[in-house]
Amino acid sequence: MPTEKKTVTLRWEAFLKALADNITDPSPDRPTVRCWTRISLIKLFSEIKKQTKLPSTFPDSPEIIEHLINIGWAHPINIDVTQTRVSRSKEFYLLDIGAAHGTNVDPLELLQAYSPYGVICYFSALAYHSLTTQLATHHHIADIYKPSTALKSGYLLSSIKKTDGPLISKRKLSLGEHLFNYQGIPCYIIQRSSALIIGVQTRILGPRTNIKITTLEQTLLDTFNKPRYCGGTSVIFEAWDEGMSRLDKNILNDYLLRIDSPLLMRRVGAMFDLLNFDPSLELKTTLERSLEFSDQYSITAIPLLPGLEFQTLNKKWQVLIP
């Protein structure tokens, strides 16, 4: 073998060995090492080149991707995305040597690959926790941000108040930033405050894939945040009916105390009444704290689900219910 060709072969062998080492196990920074976006692959290739001290003459990222496809290490994932200047950032690749061409992946894995620090939530989480028998008609991942100190004192009350009327504007009817469709199902990314999303857990989706997703209790509370994101009224009532026997009362109580939203507490209390659920003494005490707040500030009646209209008033909680 000519010296030059042998050198090229050795460089590729060094690169592929380092690549294999980097895609073996998921980590907090890379929850999935099986599914990658084009951007994340380019970043990984750059890191590997530095690790292996490959020369600048080593092939660039497009050629590396093409080579990986040719040798069966990488497989393009077919998604439906609007063609724009940034649409290439939404190209996905499956790095799985044993996978057949056209292998399907879980849409939750695609979302986690797109936003490694994001949290799967709303309808996606309801379906994942088997809280509904309905198939998710859309999926969400949330990028989490920390609210400023100045907002914390009045943030929870004011933000929920603004969505207590019917949803009429196009902005409010939006499900978030549309990323792509996969197998006909739209996938979205949204921004969520860390003050409102307390319960997050890491679950194993496969041998080389973890996902970050809201806990069962957080998922139920989220139905009072964005009902449309959760699939609407029928999905939400089914979820609470199923979740009543499965939720951990202590965990739910902890979340309510930490979120500290009187409006949320009143809605949970009204839902418990509607479904004849008997909370623990500690949970009942937490919920009834919201009534003290109501007496002080004379808060008017609110709908059980923000943005939806109901006619019957639960007088104890001052919540309109079906």
Task: Summarize the topology.
Blueprint: H1 3-22, E1 35-37, H2 38-52, H3 61-70, E2 74-77, E3 92-95, H4 107-114, E4 119-121, H5 123-128, E5 139-145, H6 149-161, H7 170-173, E6 177-182, E7 185-193, E8 200-206, E9 209-214, H8 216-222, H9 233-243, H10 249-259, H11 262-274, H12 281-297, E10 302-303, E11 312-314, E12 319-321
Parallel strand pairs: 5-7, 10-12
Antiparallel strand pairs: 1-3, 2-3, 4-5, 6-7, 8-9, 11-12
Quantity of strands, as a count: 12
Number of helices: 12
Shape: elongated
Mean pLDDT: 89
Number of structurally distinct domains: 2
Would you tell me the structural class of the helices and strands? alpha+beta
Terminal residue distance: 79 Å
- Helix percent reads 40-55%
Strand arrangement within the widest β-sheet reads 4-5-7-6
SSE run: HEHHEEHEHEHHEEEEHHHHHEEE
* Rg, Cα atoms, Å: 24 Å
Quick take:
This protein is an alpha+beta fold and 322 residues long. It is 42% helix and 18% strand.
